[in-house]
C-alpha cells in the first residue's frame, strides 16, 4: 500500500478527522499554487497528517468537555503513531517524518525516531500551521468555530512568542481569509 492505502484508512476514521486531513491538504495545495511551488511530499503528508488518530478512542476524540491529562497525552501520541503507520505502509521517509513532526518535535525520546532535517521540520511546521488554522476555524463538539480573523490574531501572537507557526503560511492565510 502506501499513500493511497493510508488515505483510505483515514476515511475510515471519524468524520472530523477525515475532513480535517482533506482540508489541510486543500489548504496546502492552495498555498503551493499561490507561492508557485511544487511539493508532492508536503501534499501527501497533509492528506494523512492525522492518521495516527485511529489509535485514539472515539470517546476521547468526540468528548464534549475538556480532556484529562491522561487523555491529552494519548492525543499527543497521534503524530508518532501516524509516523509508525506511515512507515508500515511504505510511505516515503520524508512524508512519514513530516507526519511525525506536524505538531513540533516529538516529545518521545526513543532511538527509532529520526531527528528531522531542517527541510522536513519546515514542511512539518507548514502542515501544523494549516492544521491549527483549520481546527480553530471549524466547529468542534466541545466549542464553536472561531472567526478566521480571530484565529489569525491568536496564531500570529503565538508565532511571535514561540515561533511555532510558519510565517509564510500565516501571511498566505491572512491574505486568503482575512482581507
TrEMBL record:
InterPro entries documented for this protein: HD/PDEase_dom, HD_GYP_dom
Domain HD-GYP: 1-179
Pfam families (UniProt xref): HD_5 (PF13487)
Stored SUPFAM superfamilies: HD-domain/PDEase-like
Coiled-coil regions listed in the entry: none
Protein name per UniProt: HD domain-containing protein
The species this protein was found in: Roseburia lenta
Amino acid at each position: 500500500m502506501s499513500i493511497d492505502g493510508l488515505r483510505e484508512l483515514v476515511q475510515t476514521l471519524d468524520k472530523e478527522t477525515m475532513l480535517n486531513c482533506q482540508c489541510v491538504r486543500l489548504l496546502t495545495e492552495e498555498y503551493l499554487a499561490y507561492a508557485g511551488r511544487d511539493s508532492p511530499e508536503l501534499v501527501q503528508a497533509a492528506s494523512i497528517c492525522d492518521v495516527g488518530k485511529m489509535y485514539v478512542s472515539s470517546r476521547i476524540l468526540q468528548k464534549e468537555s475538556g480532556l484529562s491529562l491522561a487523555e491529552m497525552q494519548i492525543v499527543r501520541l497521534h503524530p508518532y503513531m501516524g509516523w509508525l503507520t506511515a512507515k508500515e505502509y511504505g510511505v516515503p521517509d520524508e512524508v512519514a517524518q513530516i507526519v511525525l513532526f506536524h505538531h513540533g518535535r516529538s516529545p518521545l525520546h526513543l532511538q527509532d525516531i529520526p531527528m528531522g532535517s531542517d527541510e522536513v521540520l519546515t514542511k512539518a511546521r507548514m502542515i501544523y500551521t494549516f492544521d491549527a488554522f483549520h481546527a480553530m476555524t471549524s466547529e468542534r463538539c466541545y466549542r464553536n468555530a472561531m472567526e478566521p480573523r480571530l484565529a489569525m490574531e491568536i496564531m500570529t501572537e503565538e508565532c511571535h512568542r514561540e515561533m511555532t507557526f510558519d510565517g509564510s503560511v500565516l501571511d498566505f492565510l491572512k491574505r486568503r481569509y482575512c482581507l
